[in-house]
Amino acid sequence: MVTGGRYGFMRDVEEALLDKIFDTIKGKFGEIRGIEVGVMGAGTTRGIYQRGKEIGCPVQLVGIDFEQYRPNPTPDPDYEFIAQDSMDAFRNIKGKGYNFLFVDGCHCVNHSMCDFLNYSPFIVVGGYALFHDTALPKDGVEQGQWPQNHSYAGTPDSVLGVREGLKKLGLLQGYRSDWQLVEEIPSSDGLMGMCLFQKLKDL
Ligand SMILES: C[S@@+](CC[C@H](N)C(=O)[O-])C[C@H]1O[C@@H](n2cnc3c(N)ncnc32)[C@H](O)[C@@H]1O
Ligand SMILES: [Zn+2]
């Protein structure tokens, strides 16, 4: 069930995974340095800053979305927002040492794959990439039935294909030597669901 709770539009079980990731990141890196593709109402963004305060862990985030989704007021004085299609915004990422990537922008197969390819190089070894809406098709509900206005070049619209993208990238099957699947939160309704990957090495 979607709560629109502590981290935006995700279920309680998904929020619990984010809590766990940030505890781990605090222990390993001492700070959360994240890139979030798809900010919308900044529920996830503000949730991460809030969680950082709760567990005593500094947070620095970069968010990518279109200008109308620039969080106002800014979640933090150091928060950075890049108002561009995610296919292009990666060129404007300045910092280094990011340890968390949240892929929750356009959920079409092309954007979800390119978001991983373009942003995962910014993540340090040992860091994490979390994809939202990785649900398995079940009971006749396919991911592909959900429309995605992916906003890249305007038209045509596409459909939800995050899971298909994860397979095409070889991430889901464990074919890659640079990233490995750590945990999946399944979902039975074609939407929601999460896959968490950890970076093992730079390519
Ligand atoms: C599911 S929402 C993000 C929700 C957010 N993580 C939360 O729960 O608070 C997806 C966002 O991705 C953005 N988006 C869609 N296509 C995009 C693109 N091509 N580049 C950047 N952002 C995009 C949309 O504008 C939308 O705000
Ligand atoms: Zn798209």
Structural overview:
The protein has a single domain, classed as Vaccinia Virus protein VP39 (Rossmann fold, 3-Layer(aba) Sandwich). The chain is 26% helix and 25% strand. The strands form two sheets. It has a seven-stranded mixed sheet with strand order 3-2-1-4-5-9-8, sandwiched between helices. It has a two-stranded antiparallel ribbon with strand order 6-7. The protein starts with 11 loop residues before the first helix and ends with a strand. It has 203 residues and is an alpha/beta fold.
- Estimate the helix proportion, in percent: 25-40%
Bound molecules: S-adenosylmethionine, zinc ion
Give the biggest beta sheet. 7 strands, mixed
Q: Which residue ranges are poorly predicted, with pLDDT under 50 across at least 5 consecutive positions?
A: none
The dominant shape is globular
**Per CATH, what is the topology?**
Rossmann fold
* Structural domain tally: 1
**SSE sequence, one letter per element:** HEHEEHEHEEEHEE
Cα gyration radius (Å)? 16 Å
Task: Enumerate the strands of the largest sheet in spatial order, edge to edge or round the barrel.
Answer: 3-2-1-4-5-9-8
Helix segment count? 5
Percent of sequence in beta strands: 15-25%
